[in-house]
């Protein structure tokens, strides 16, 4: 007769609805009951005929180099099936296996432990049975470590078994709303824009507009001169910071940067010794991208990091049935899983990342975009970089490049811009010990640090740049690693403007959030970091907003009239033109150096046309300013898959 009871120890075993067959008693010894350890998992698998002795030796050797459970290694290398492994685990721990689909957990018990604790520790309080609480675990080898905490909450506890997939499903069934709310409010209020009402900004914008209108009516020349001076100062500051950062990068090629950064107030353990590779979780947010899903699986499949240590979470919104269906058809490998993000009042990438973070298994957390194609050895290099760095290095930022640079003029300019940013400017900011506004992809974090900071601000539409500032404010460093991820360059005008407007809006909002307390920001970043923050997050948006004012002075170079022509002394007009030419020359030189490598050398002839490319950001800036007033949390999503590697134009590289 099949026994459908849950193992309650040697005493009574009342029947439990929904329980599956338990293990054979002959091999069942529960740790802590009788003081003996359970039999070895490998021995059980050998006895069951599910595992070959040679495979066991190989798996044990791998376990000595990897921070992975033996079962994950065995399944990851197809030495045993998941069903064979789970049957052996049930025998090893003499534990019942409830059917969570037909008998879900008691939500009151889940609340006593907390949904976040359940996810973190791989535990799920299930039912009260015979005066004891059955607590399911996906990590039975760790159960005894949690027993004191569990008995403090529940009294007598009995271990049952489940897998991570069913544990996650059980928690989502009972506490989806709690997990969703947590994803929307992880960041402390003083560092979050979720308390943003826009009232202060609207009042400030209205006041500034009113004052400017009055000045223009009463003293138009003086008002225009003041606006011109402000625009010119923003241009000089931006150009100066870019040039300084680029020079720092070029000087750094000759000598390493000194490690003089202040240490965080709290010690941070290394994820694992380098002798044993850690589990790395990578989150990939997807939204209305059914066409890109199969290519994404293929690209990430080229990663050479051990698959038993790779944990890829594909984050899909609940309403996005098309993408979920495409992922289902793609037959995901075991190291990939879909996490459905429940519907909520906002729909942003950082909200999805926050939701997925609790489901990650790794001690290192990474982020890719849907269209990304990372280098095969990238995660190996990231892990080595974390190990070589001090504990103050909390983030590794990879280099972004594009696989469709020759699609059209816009994609060429986009490629030049990103080459300058990721190969010259960001490494220079790192060397100058300035805050680094992170890119949205090819990011890797120490999990403990990420969780300590509250992860991402779910309401910020440039959550990456904001997180970079919060890391710097807490004394952590970001390093730029020369490992490349290729993605799709935005090659259509209107999507480009929408994407750039979201970035500029996020920079404006990030500046406003961190400037709530300027003195605290000064103390956290220091004078140099505070100045760099002002240039990156205030001067850049203001320069784009006031760019039309500066453009008007090209009329002087063409011999045309200008409202300030009579008010400016001759040297001032010449100085303005010289400043414009110098700024353009700096941008050209930075662009030329950035694409001087073999891959993009052919783009050098397009660098001078950036003079026509950057003005597009002015339209994006005015759109961003309007949305900051009307729709501050609106996520203007970038469409992917327009020109992918399936397109011949995308497969070709610049020679």
Describe it for me?
The protein is of the alpha/beta class. It has a domain at 19-184: Type II secretion system, protein E, N-terminal domain (GMP Synthetase, Chain A, domain 3). The chain contains 24 helices and 13 strands. The strands form three sheets. It has an eight-stranded mixed β-sheet, sandwiched between helices. A three-stranded mixed β-sheet has the order 3-4-5, with helices on both faces. A two-stranded antiparallel ribbon has the order 1-2. The longest helix has 34 residues, at 518-551. Mean pLDDT is 84; it is low at 1-35, 257-272 and 646-655.
Short account of what is shown:
49% of the residues lie in helices and 11% in strands. It is built from 24 helices and 13 strands.
Number of strands: 13
Please tell me how large the radius of gyration is: 28 Å
Q: Order of strands across the widest beta sheet?
A: 8-7-6-9-12-11-13-10
Instruction: Note the total helix count.
Output: 24
Uncertain segments of ≥5 residues (pLDDT<50)?
1-35, 257-272, 646-655
* CATH class division of the domain at 19-184: Alpha Beta
Find the CATH superfamily of the domain at 19-184.
Answer: Type II secretion system, protein E, N-terminal domain
Write the topology of this structure.
Elements: E1 19-20, H1 41-48, H2 53-63, H3 70-76, H4 82-93, E2 97-98, H5 107-113, H6 115-121, E3 123-129, E4 132-137, H7 143-154, E5 157-161, H8 164-184, H9 199-218, H10 220-252, E6 280-286, H11 293-301, E7 310-317, H12 321-329, E8 336-341, H13 349-357, E9 364-367, E10 373-374, H14 378-388, E11 393-402, H15 409-431, E12 443-446, H16 447-452, H17 463-473, E13 477-487, H18 493-514, H19 518-551, H20 554-557, H21 570-594, H22 610-613, H23 616-630, H24 648-651
Parallel strand pairs: 4-5, 6-7, 6-9, 7-8, 11-13
Antiparallel strand pairs: 1-2, 3-4, 9-12, 10-13, 11-12
């Amino acid at each position: 007769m099949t026994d459908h009871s849950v193992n309650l120890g040697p005493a009574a075993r009342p029947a439990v609805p929904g329980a599956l067959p338990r293990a054979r008693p002959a091999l069942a010894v529960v740790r802590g009951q009788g003081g003996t350890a359970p039999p070895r998992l490998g021995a059980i698998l050998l006895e069951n005929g599910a595992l070959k002795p040679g495979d066991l030796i190989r798996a044990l050797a791998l376990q000595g180099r990897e921070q992975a459970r033996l079962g994950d290694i065995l399944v990851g290398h197809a030495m045993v099936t998941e069903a064979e492994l789970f049957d052996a685990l049930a025998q090893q721990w003499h534990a019942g296996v409830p059917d969570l689909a037909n008998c879900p957990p008691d939500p009151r018990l889940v609340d006593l432990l907390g949904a976040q604790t359940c996810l973190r520790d791989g535990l799920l309080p299930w039912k009260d049975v015979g005066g004891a609480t059955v607590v399911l675990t996906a990590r039975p080898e760790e159960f005894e470590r949690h027993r004191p905490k569990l008995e403090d909450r529940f009294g007598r506890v009995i271990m049952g078994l489940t897998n991570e997939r069913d544990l996650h499903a059980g928690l989502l069934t009972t506490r989806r709303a709690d997990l969703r709310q947590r994803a929307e409010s992880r960041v402390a209020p003083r560092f979050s824009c979720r308390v943003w009402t826009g009232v202060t900004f609207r009042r400030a914008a209205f006041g500034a507009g009113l004052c400017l209108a009055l000045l223009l009516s009463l003293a138009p020349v003086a008002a225009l001169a003041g606006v011109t001076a402000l625009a010119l100062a923003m241009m000089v500051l931006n150009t100066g910071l870019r040039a300084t950062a680029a020079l720092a990068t070029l000087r750094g090629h000759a000598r390493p940067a000194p490690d003089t950064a202040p240490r965080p107030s709290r010690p941070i353990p290394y994820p694992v010794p380098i002798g044993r590779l850690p589990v790395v979780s990578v989150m990939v947010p997807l939204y209305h991208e059914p066409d890109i899903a199969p290519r994404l699986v293929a690209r990430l499949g080229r990663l050479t990091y051990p698959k038993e240590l790779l944990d890829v979470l594909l984050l899909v919104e609940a309403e996005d049935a098309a993408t979920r269906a495409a992922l289902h058809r793609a037959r995901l490998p075991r190291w990939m899983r879909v996490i459905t993000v429940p519907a909520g009042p906002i729909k942003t990438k950082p909200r999805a990342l926050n939701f997925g973070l609790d489901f990650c298994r790794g001690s290192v957390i990474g982020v890719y975009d849907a269209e990304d194609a990372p280098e095969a050895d990238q995660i190996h290099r990231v892990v080595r970089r974390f190990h070589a760095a001090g504990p103050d290095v909390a983030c590794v930022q990879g280099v972004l490049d594009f696989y469709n640079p020759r699609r059209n003029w816009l994609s060429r300019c986009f490629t030049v811009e990103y080459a300058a940013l990721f190969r010259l400017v960001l490494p220079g900011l790192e060397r100058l010990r300035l805050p680094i506004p992170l890119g949205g992809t090819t990011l890797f974090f120490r999990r403990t640090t990420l969780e300590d900071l509250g992860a991402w601000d779910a309401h910020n539409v440039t959550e990456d740049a904001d997180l970079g500032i919060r890391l710097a404010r807490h004394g952590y460093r970001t390093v730029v690693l020369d490992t490349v991820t290729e993605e799709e360059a935005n090659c259509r005008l209107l999507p480009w403007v929408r994407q750039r407007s979201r970035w500029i809006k996020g920079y404006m909002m990030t500046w406003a959030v961190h400037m709530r307390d300027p003195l605290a920001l000064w103390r956290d970043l220091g004078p140099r970091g505070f100045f760099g923050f002002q240039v990156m997050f205030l001067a850049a948006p203001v320069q784009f907003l006031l760019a039309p004012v500066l453009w008007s002075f090209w009329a002087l170079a063409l011999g045309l009239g200008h409202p300030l022509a009579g008010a400016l002394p001759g040297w001032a007009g010449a100085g303005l033109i010289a400043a414009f030419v110098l700024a353009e020359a700096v941008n050209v030189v930075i662009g030329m150096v950035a694409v001087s490598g073999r891959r993009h050398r052919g783009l050098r002839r397009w660098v001078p046309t950036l003079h026509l490319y950057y003005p597009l950001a002015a339209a994006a800036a005015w759109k961003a300013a309007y949305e900051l007033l009307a729709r501050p949390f609106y996520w203007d999503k970038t469409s992917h898959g327009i020109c992918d590697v399936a397109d011949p134009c995308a497969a070709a590289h610049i020679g």
